[in-house]
Amino acid sequence: MLTASVNNTEPVTVDFTATGPTLNNAPFRWDMVRLSDRTFHILHENRSYNAELLELDRATKTVSLNINGHVHTVQVKDRFDQLLEQLGMSNAASAKVGDLKAPMPGLIVGISVQPGDTVAKGDSLLILEAMKMENNLKASAGGTVKTIRIAKGDRVEKGQVLIEFV
């Protein structure tokens, strides 16, 4: 089951069953013919619609359509997006690199970046010594270092923010 919101309106539920698609649990009858890669002709309740796909953003699950000369933006959420939203984690998938937090208590023995540095996923940020082992903490995604909240020799606690990103 999907939810779809057109032009930021109240979402509707869309499901695809063995008997055909449903819209808010009611059967949705339509006839659609593909005219080209981006254009379609649709018949619904004795009305004719010309639809053109303007843009498809797979990352944000957003579709822009031109239907009979009017542009509509459709935001689609699948069951996984809905579950993340219910758990309060709806922005988790779209998040950029977040603040680097200490994964465990330890001692900062080295810092590899400075404020303003641009880092890529996998770049070394700092070395945290914990339980007599040196742990190389790396960037989880690309970003720009905003602030370094620790210094070499500082003791840190689990969950403490070490580096902030823009």
Automatic annotation (TrEMBL):
PROSITE patterns (UniProt xref): BIOTIN, BIOTINYL_LIPOYL
Classification via SUPFAM superfamilies: Single hybrid motif
Record InterPro entries: Biotin_BS (IPR001882), Biotin_Carboxyl_Carrier/Decarb (IPR050709), Biotin_lipoyl (IPR000089), Single_hybrid_motif (IPR011053)
Keyword Transferase among UniProt keywords: no
Residue ranges constituting the Lipoyl-binding domain according to the UniProt record: 84-166
One family name in Pfam for this protein: Biotin_lipoyl
UniProt keywords, alphabetically: Biotin
Protein name in UniProt: Biotin carboxyl carrier protein
Keyword Cell division: no
Source species: Spirosoma oryzae
